[in-house]
């Protein structure tokens, strides 16, 4: 049985030239949060594991500072 290989997801951080993820950049972080308020997975975003951890940490910090909502009610 052959494995179906999909097209590689474009890395959004690399495409936009972002070297370091900053929790104060809420416009960029909103691209990694679903409409329901959940952090999108690596499979969806196309980030490397390290970048995904940085983005998740930045989103959590931005939520604490009330720049991003925790959920969509």
TrEMBL record:
GO function terms (MF aspect): small ribosomal subunit rRNA binding; structural constituent of ribosome
Pfam families: Ribosomal_S18 (PF01084)
Single GO biological process annotation from the record: translation
Highest taxon above the source species: Bacteria
GO cellular component: cytosolic small ribosomal subunit
Keywords: Ribonucleoprotein, Ribosomal protein, RNA-binding, rRNA-binding
InterPro entries reported in the protein's UniProt record: Ribosomal_bS18, Ribosomal_bS18_sf
Subunit structure: Part of the 30S ribosomal subunit. Forms a tight heterodimer with protein bS6.
Family membership noted in the UniProt record: Belongs to the bacterial ribosomal protein bS18 family.
Role: Binds as a heterodimer with protein bS6 to the central domain of the 16S rRNA, where it helps stabilize the platform of the 30S subunit.
Protein name: Small ribosomal subunit protein bS18
Lineage: Bacteria, Bacillati, Actinomycetota, Actinomycetes, Pseudonocardiales
Gene name in the database record: rpsR
């Amino acid at each position: 049985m052959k494995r179906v290989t999909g097209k590689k997801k474009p890395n959004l951080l690399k495409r936009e030239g972002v070297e370091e993820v900053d929790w104060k950049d809420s416009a960029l972080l909103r691209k990694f949060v679903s409409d329901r308020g959940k952090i999108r997975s690596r499979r969806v975003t196309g980030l490397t594991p390290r970048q995904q951890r940085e983005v998740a940490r930045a989103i959590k910090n931005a939520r604490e500072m009330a720049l991003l909502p925790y959920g969509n009610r």
